[in-house]
Amino acid sequence: MRAILLTAALLPLVALGARALAADAPPSPPPGAGLDLINQRCAFCHNSAQIFSQHKSAAAWAATVDQMANRGAEVSPEEMKTIVDYLSKNYGAPEQDTAATPPHN
Ligand code: HEC
Description:
Layout: H1 2-24, H2 33-41, H3 48-52, H4 58-71, H5 77-90, H6 96-99
Heme C is lined by residues 38, 41-42, 45-46, 50-51, 54, 64-65, 68, 71-73, 75, 83.
């Protein structure tokens, strides 16, 4: 009897937990030439989820991809551009940095 009551009390919590987990799951990356390249060139040293959890400006993405090339990622300049375009379009930094700065006049 006690066990049944306990189970009944816990069920809603379990349901809530499952919903929270589903909400936390990152959306899958949108398809594109950039994604194909990332899967081919970037995902063998680390999980691509590590890449898609970041948000950076185009300049910061370019710096990251450059760094990865120095580490051993084999990307041509053309591929680098495709990857940086893809990442800054889909995983860009919010533009609030400049908007948050109060105007000077
Ligand atoms: C030769 C191995 C290697 C390859 C290939 C590689 N990476 Fe990395 N990457 C690393 C290592 C090691 C780290 C962790 C060290 C660090 O954070 O600087 C890392 C960390 C990162 C991070 C998290 C740190 C940060 O600076 O934001 C991102 C994002 C990233 N890599 C993106 C990429 C992308 C995009 C590519 C493909 C162009 C790529 N990586 C290919 C080795 C690699």
